[in-house]
Design a protein that fits this description.
By secondary structure, the protein is mostly helical. Helices cover 49% and strands 5% of the residues. The longest helix has 14 residues.
């Protein structure tokens, strides 16, 4: 997202619909909004390991976004 207004509209829309569909104009935009908190996508790499991972956190901390990004990466590969 290149501007703050666009991001805020996106974030508000997620709150209103309460689901992890990350789209704009019908296109999946997960690649442009996903930001990993660890270097070299460390969180995503841990989730993508061939074992069970549990994501724990407060509402709105990005758990669903991590899962959505992981799903997209697996489907792309």
């Amino acid at each position: 997202m290149e501007n703050t207004k666009e991001f805020l509209e996106f974030a508000t829309s997620l709150k209103l619909i309460r689901k992890a569909e990350i789209e704009k104009d019908g296109k999946d935009i997960i690649d442009s909004v996903y930001t990993d908190l660890l270097p070299n996508n460390g969180v995503l790499q841990m989730v993508n390991l061939p074992r069970t991972s549990i994501l724990k956190g407060r509402k709105g901390t990005g758990k669903s976004t991590i899962i959505k990004k992981s799903q997209k990466d697996m489907l792309d590969n």
